[in-house]
Amino acid sequence: MDISVLGTGYLGATHAACMAELGFSVVGVDIDEAKIAALSAGTTPFYEPGLGPILRRAMDNGRLVFTTDISVAARATVHFIAVGTPQAKGSFAADTSAVEQVLRALVPHLEGDHVVIGKSTVPVGTAAHLQAMVDELAGDRANVEVCWNPEFLREGYAVQDTITPDRIVLGISQPSSPAREVVEKLYAQALAAGTPMIVTDLATAELVKVAANAFLATKISFINAVSEVCEAAGADVTAVADALGHDKRIGRRFLNAGLGFGGGCLPKDIRAFMARAGELGANEALTFLREVDAINMRRRDHLVQVVKSVCGGSLIGQNIAVLGCAFKPHSDDVRDSPSLAVAGALSLGGAEVSVYDPQAMDNARAIFPTLHYATDTQEVLSGADCVVVATEWPEFLELDPSEAATMVRTPRVVDGRNVIDRQAWLAAGWSVHALGRPSLEPSSS
Ligand SMILES: NC(=O)c1ccc[n+]([C@@H]2O[C@H](COP(=O)([O-])OP(=O)(O)OC[C@H]3O[C@@H](n4cnc5c(N)ncnc54)[C@H](O)[C@@H]3O)[C@@H](O)[C@H]2O)c1
User: Fold this and answer.
1) What's the CA-to-centroid distance between 120 and ligand 1, angstroms?
2) Which of 18, 147, 230, 265 is catalytic?
3) Is residue 167 part of a domain?
């Protein structure tokens, strides 16, 4: 079974390499020539742990090729859609034009039986619309079935999540659909290992993905809303989260109060979910997601205000070290990154901002060229009046606070992710600040 993967970004490049690793013959197609050139040279155009070796292994044994020529994909019979579905300009809705474009480009080349497996995150109803479009484009030449198999991978764990997913969701148009057998063959290894497979209609499969992201976003914003009340009441949100987390119905994961969520998925997916619900007439169903979004966005402003207050009420002339600018650790992705937004706002507020991230520097520099980008942790800390922990990379958590104190001008730390060992930093002479927790000041004696 030959496979094409259409769109070779974070999702598609990983999926293409993993499918080749599982033994399939794969062609990855993208319109971005630079990306295809990098992938063809065996280089991953983004940071994803473990992806490089499997990509090169698959290319060396001839199972994986990349091209910008979509007609090459017509030699495959199974086509995964992994193109982007960003937020549309001037609207909350998802821009699904790339999904349509890629099928408009592919289908005229097809003959015989083909299965299109959508992985991109799309508004409910998209797959049914695409099936009608594809039927028209294919005419009598080809029989093309569209099914939807939403992707749940996490950047930073993308290889593991692709090869051993925690569930496989498949939306098909009819129970007897041949796509089901195709998908079962593709994921035979995961299915043999006991991975649950949920087979539904197209609309349900599309909804599973956006509902999952809306739930995760809501859980994060819930604890961040509680964090706001903790600050007003002098309580500690981390202790609240720990205590809540012992309740098995709630669980501790995604209850870390802090700077909130960002990245290429959660923010745009909750907005697209609201927009689509409105189009379907379910206007009131998801209005709470507006609040989820608003709580999340005000975390960024709030962190800037906390830093300002820690610095004595003004950012002007303050040297601020921002640790991390990726939207989360183990990724170089800065799309809608809360950390980078905070670094930018501090700079615009008059501070001298120096940023260091183990992987995301080039991507950040392209978006925010006016910040100072340090070459390592030592340089970023050097002469700082305030250190902001913005992305919870392990190397920042492992910093020795005593050593760090010798590098800065003033030992003040603002933990935007509630991850550092507060008592250790306090003991090393730092004044320690966070979101949703009382500040700790070293005794003057
Ligand atoms: N990144 C994730 O963690 C993740 C997880 C689950 C789902 N998703 C979903 O997967 C989709 C892709 O996300 P991503 O993060 O990989 O985005 P991305 O921007 O990294 O990659 C999208 C790729 O599609 C390519 N593309 C656009 N139009 C094309 C066309 N007409 N033909 C061929 N290629 C085209 C772009 O050049 C780009 O390389 C989105 O719908 C996203 O919501 C992403």
Assistant:
1) 7
2) 265
3) yes
